[in-house]
Structure formats: C-alpha cells, structure tokens
C-alpha cells in the first residue's frame, strides 16, 4: 500500500517530536544506542568540528516503524487518516501498546542487562570482601610475628599497628580490584 505525501510528512513531523523524548523512562532503548554511537563519533572527531543532529537518525527509524504500522492498519481496512491518528497514539512515549516497548525481544534485552548489573555488583562485593580479608590476615600474621619478636608476647602496640596497616592494605587492594572490574565493564 502506498502512503500519501501528506501522511509521510505528518509521520516525519511526529517522529522528530517524539525522538526528543525517551520511549521508556530510565531504560536504554534502541534510539539511545544510536545516540551513544553518534556520541562516540562526536568524541572521536572532536566536539566543535562535528555536530550531527542525532534525533534525525532516530526520527527516520521511528518513521519507518510508523509507516509499517500504518500500512498494516490500511491493509486491515482502516482509512489512512485514522491509521495515522492511531499510530500517533500507539507510538507515544508512555503508550502501553507501543510495539517498541511491548516487543518480547526488547524485554529479554532489558532483563539481560538488569541481570548483568546484579552479577557485576555481586562480583564487586566478593572481590572487595576477599581483598579486605586477605589484608586483615596478612596484617594479623605480621603483627603477631613482629610483636613476638619485639616484646615476646602476642598482643601489643606493634600488633595493633600492623593489623591496622593490614586492614588498610586490604581496603586498598579491594578498591583497586573493584576499580579494575568496573573499568573493564565500562
């Protein structure tokens, strides 16, 4: 089915308005991925030399989805203007019937990244805790050895000093490991 020029112009106008907004609040969408790609190009080429209008790429993508939707509605027997009005209602940012949000593949993608974040947080907690434990054990062992050589007893001020230094060593190792893991995730 062929869509008239006025309907195509209305679709482009609507798509440009909508792509300034997010499809789902607090979640990354396909359009944001396109924006991130263009953002990396801006960073690579320099901010002042290369200023694309990223929403135009996103508007073309949304217009393509809307044209397909309108053609499907027209094939079902709906008029072009009614199909355009329904498409504008369906593709609104917070519409529950938005096919870009209701798509099961989209929900699988969101679930995958939500689980990935949980795994990353657990990994960072385990790394940090293990390094802190290692530092505490090393500080305790060195403290007992140094205190026994210095004073011939197990606990004293050298023990507590080296235990504190061991805990600081564990904190430092934990922070360094967490930074390395977080940096590799980025």
Q: Find the structural class using helix and strand composition.
A: mainly alpha
For the termini, the CA-CA separation is 45 Å
| Number of structurally distinct domains | 2
Considering DSSP H and I runs of 4 or more, what fraction of the residues is helical?
A: over 70%
Provide a count of the helices: 7
Along the chain, the helix and strand elements come as: HHHHHHH
Biggest sheet architecture: none
Count of extended strands = 0
**What is the alpha-carbon Rg in Å?**
29 Å
Taken as a percent bin, the fraction of beta residues is: under 5%
Structural summary, described in words:
The chain crosses the membrane at residues 123-145, 157-179. Keywords: Membrane, Transmembrane, Transmembrane helix. This protein has 186 residues and is mainly alpha-helical. The chain has 2 domains: 5-102, no CATH class; 112-185. Helix content is 77%, strand content 0%. The chain is built from 7 helices and no strands. It has helices spanning 5-18, 30-45, 54-75, 80-90, 99-102, 104-151, 157-185. Helix 2 (30-45) runs antiparallel to helix 3. It is rod-shaped and about 95 Å long. It starts with a helix and ends with a helix. Residues 47-51 have low confidence and may be disordered.
């Amino acid at each position: 089915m062929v869509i008239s020029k006025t309907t195509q112009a209305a679709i482009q106008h609507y798509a440009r308005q909508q792509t300034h907004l997010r499809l789902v609040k607090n979640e990354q969408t396909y359009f944001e991925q396109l924006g991130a790609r263009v953002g990396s190009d801006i960073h690579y080429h320099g901010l002042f030399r290369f200023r694309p209008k990223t929403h135009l790429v996103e508007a073309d993508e949304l217009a393509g989805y809307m044209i397909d939707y309108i053609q499907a509605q027209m094939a079902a027997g709906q008029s072009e203007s009614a199909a355009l009005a329904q498409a504008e209602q369906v593709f609104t940012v917070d519409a529950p019937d938005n096919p870009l949000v209701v798509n099961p593949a989209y929900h699988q993608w969101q679930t995958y990244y939500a689980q990935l974040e949980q795994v990353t947080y657990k990994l960072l907690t385990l790394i940090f805790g293990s390094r802190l434990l290692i530092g505490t054990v090393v500080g305790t062992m060195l403290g007992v050895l140094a205190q026994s050589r210095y004073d011939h007893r197990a606990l004293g001020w050298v023990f507590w000093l080296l235990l504190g230094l061991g805990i600081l060593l564990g904190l430092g190792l934990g922070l360094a490991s967490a930074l390395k893991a977080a940096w590799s995730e980025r």
